[in-house]
Design goal:
Blueprint (H helix, E strand, L loop, with lengths): L2 E6 L4 H14 L5 E7 L12 H8 L5 E5 L14 H7 L2 H11 L4 E7 L7 H7 L3 E5 L3 H16 L11 E3 L3 E3 L14 H12 L5 E4 L7 H8 L12 E3 L14 H6 L7 E5 L6 E2 H14 L2 E5 L2 E2 L20 H4 L4 E4 L5 H5 L4 E6 L3 H9 L4 E3 L6 H12 L2 E3 L12 H13 L3 H20 L4 H14 L12
Parallel strand pairs: 1-2, 1-4, 2-3, 4-5, 5-8, 8-9, 10-12, 10-15, 11-13, 12-14, 15-16, 16-17
Antiparallel strand pairs: 6-7
Helix pairs in contact: 6-7, 6-8, 10-15, 15-16
Length: 476
């Protein structure tokens, strides 16, 4: 009987893409029969993957299959930090039934879950199947999350009220204001869920993380040595990244056609992720700042008007931009107000810098293509990612943001940041050189004999081993 893996990703493009690519990578020799359980997106702003992507994988011969779980009623307020955890937890019965059906044809060796799906350890325990975590973020956040239950006991005030930095094993001293957004309000149910997910990490059979040793050695060492979780055995850690969706360059796409006409490394690429949209006043300031910088730009941006429930469409974006902006920047810039092929853009020789929200996928993509970043975190763990790339890795430069009170970043600061990244002979040059170093390191990591290649082989061996030694790690 073939060995089976069941994978449960979070129903959002950013998590889905890296999870599915991980399935492709671990099954390149067809050693497993992999079933990916798809939850329906709870509301439209959760962007999914195109049907053609699923079809290409289903027809690839990799023995990877997709199973759509029945729709469940979304729980409560979708703006709550707790929403996605509750939504995923409500699928437990459907996940259990799907695994039971699979067990008639394959030996299900593991249930692999997203970081927001740790409640599914209870399903694994009930069925006698070990649960693994596929951590779609980096080792810095993993180290912090393993340590959060300790911080929850030690720190009684709100993080934003702390006067000193927080000491985190593997990260050193971390400014309180770069903590992930769910931690910034202890009165919110989302804080409780974040601590609870963090606590449940210790009961996993293994922690699979989308990073590589050359990028986050200190954090990986701290986790592996048990320093982040001193009061409980840390599960084995497998750093298998970078796991990326590398799109083929479609030269008929308007963004690529435009880039083909630009000089090498001359274009600033601005993009804020699949869920990132900005208020109208901020879009105006970005436009003014990038125009004043004098640099060529490709701006893939969506605007949210205060009186609208969803980002504005392409047809009315011109109404948001400053008067005369499109005419003044014609030939020097392109504004693209919808989804764009980000990896194909970053791989283009005309792109010289990346203004990013610092989502982990975007961070890994910038490193893969050797493009320096200007860090503009918006939400979730993005502040921590930006802090790491600026202060630990050195491939990003910092935009001056008011993390405590929020507010609009004005055009002067946008211009300063862009000029620093594209022109500065000291900081800008160092970030560009470091980005090229990490480009080589990230590619070497996944090649045969590389650090992540070896980690993936070690994980495969553990998954294929008999389960006689399995024990329930999460108490009833």
């Amino acid at each position: 009987m073939k060995v089976g893996l069941v994978i449960l990703p979070m129903p959002d493009r950013g998590h889905l893409a890296s999870t599915v690519e991980f399935a492709k990578r671990i099954n390149q020799h067809n050693q497993f029969s992999i079933t990916i359980l798809n939850m329906a997106p709870p509301f439209p702003s959760f962007s999914s993957l195109p049907a053609s992507y699923y079809e290409s994988i289903s027809s690839s011969g990799l023995d990877i299959h997709f199973h759509d779980l029945p729709q469940v009623e979304p729980p409560g307020d979708p703006s709550s930090e707790a929403f996605i955890s509750l939504y995923i937890a409500s699928h437990a019965t459907h996940v259990r039934n799907s695994i039971l059906r699979l067990q008639s044809s394959v030996r299900v060796a593991a249930l692999v879950v997203d970081l927001f799906a740790t409640t599914m350890t209870e399903v694994g325990n009930e069925l006698g199947i070990p649960t693994y975590l596929f951590f779609t973020c980096g080792a810095a956040l993993l180290a912090l999350m393993l340590h959060i239950p300790n911080l929850d006991l030690e720190i009684k005030s709100e993080f934003e009220d702390l006067k000193e930095d927080v000491e985190v094993p593997g990260l050193g001293r971390v400014p309180p204001l770069v903590m992930p957004s769910p931690l910034m309000n202890k009165k919110d149910e989302g804080y409780w869920w974040f601590v609870e997910h963090s606590r449940r990490f210790r009961y996993m059979k293994g922690l699979i993380v989308n990073t590589y040793l050359e990028l986050e050695s200190a954090a990986l060492e701290a986790v592996g040595e048990g320093r982040c979780l001193p009061d409980y055995p840390t599960p084995p850690v497998f750093s298998v990244g970078p796991v990326l969706v590398l799109e083929e360059k479609d030269h008929s796409h308007p963004c690529i056609e435009w880039l083909d006409t630009q000089p090498p490394q001359s274009v600033v690429f601005l993009c804020f992720g699949s869920m990132g949209d900005l208020p109208e006043p901020q879009v105006k300031e970005i436009a003014l700042g990038i125009e004043r910088s004098g640099h060529r730009f490709l701006c893939c941006i969506r605007v949210r008007r205060s009186d609208e429930p969803a980002p504005s469409s392409a047809s009315d974006l011109d109404d948001v931009l400053p008067d005369g902006f499109v005419e003044r920047t014609k030939g020097n810039g392109l504004v693209w107000p919808r989804w764009a092929p980000q990896t194909a853009i970053l791989s283009h020789g005309a792109v010289g810098g990346f203004v990013s929200h610092c989502g982990w996928n975007s961070c890994l993509e910038s490193l893969w293509f050797g493009v320096p970043m200007l860090a503009w975190p918006l939400d979730a763990e993005q502040r921590l990612n930006g802090f790491e790339l600026v202060n630990k890795v050195g491939t990003a430069l910092e935009l001056q943001l008011d993390y405590k009170d929020g507010g609009i970043v004005d055009a002067t600061e946008v211009e300063r940041g862009v000029r620093l990244m594209m022109e500065d002979p000291d900081k800008g040059k160092r970030a560009r050189e470091k980005a090229m170093e990490m480009r080589a390191a990230s590619r070497a990591a996944v090649e045969e004999g590389g650090s992540s290649f070896d980690e993936l082989r070690r994980l495969t061996e553990q998954l294929l081993s008999p389960m006689e030694d399995y024990e329930v790690l999460y108490p009833d």
